Amino acid sequence: MPAVSVLMPVYNAERYIGEAVRSILDQTLADFEFVVIDDGSTDRSGELLAALAADDPRIRLIRRSNTGYLRALNEGLALCSGELVARMDADDVALPERFERQVRYLREHPECLAVGCGMLRIDADGDLICEEPTPTGHEEIEARLLKGLGALPHPGAMIRREALVALGGYREEYYGVEDHDLWLRLAERGRLANLPEPLIKFRTHPENFTFVNEARNRQTLAAVLADAYRRRGLPPPDDWLGELSPPLPGIARSAAWTRSAIYAGQYRTARKHALAIWKHSLWRCDSWILLIHALLGPRAGPLRRVYRRLRGSQR
Fold it and tell me: What does the pLDDT look like over 294-307, one tens digit per residue?
């Protein structure tokens, strides 16, 4: 039995799938099986996966018709045999020591049921936007989850399989925020943690499922939170989602990612996206300020105050 089962559903990810799979195969900890569910891809994802599987026996590839991401997750979970399940998404990149460090942590902390990590947010081209630290302790993680906030990155998580199976896997009624629901249920049975160092590159792009379905997912998240408060016997807050930013249209989200790159000092990435936004909305003052800020880099300090005022006025 392998120490780790890697679980990755795939649907139409041909642009990213090769890099994602190779980042798993290149892990410093090699004792794993790689369960990949090709969920009826209509692009070249299946062919690329078949070629990769032919070269590495650790890849266990299942190709079948499309049933949806969540059913693919539960189907793959049923095939996992390792003590630990490492989640992975088809458009992300695992850093080489991810498994080694997460396995070590879980073996040293038997009370912990799942461990995540910090993230490097990248764009569709793989260029760095910023580093996103995550809360490390159980109490802070659970508190953020109960507010509807992200706390443990799903594609960067490693979970004890026994605990996952005992919970019945992912609940289909909470499709879209199934990971948030899972973390809240696991938190009732044991501890959650994040390693502070970034061990995964999380890819941000307009076709990302989370962003495409954000408005619908917020409503499902409200149901997840209601259920979690009920189980804990806690009074629900007056406003379930009051601390969350409203869903952003595509151009506004691109601008938010660009601002993140600017504040992180990733000016090359920022300039690329700021230029694209400027071309899309030449008539908007804030698109000009964003472009100038990205072009000037650290010399644009005085623009920060103007930019923050504009940003506040758009909320």
Answer: 888 766 555 555 55
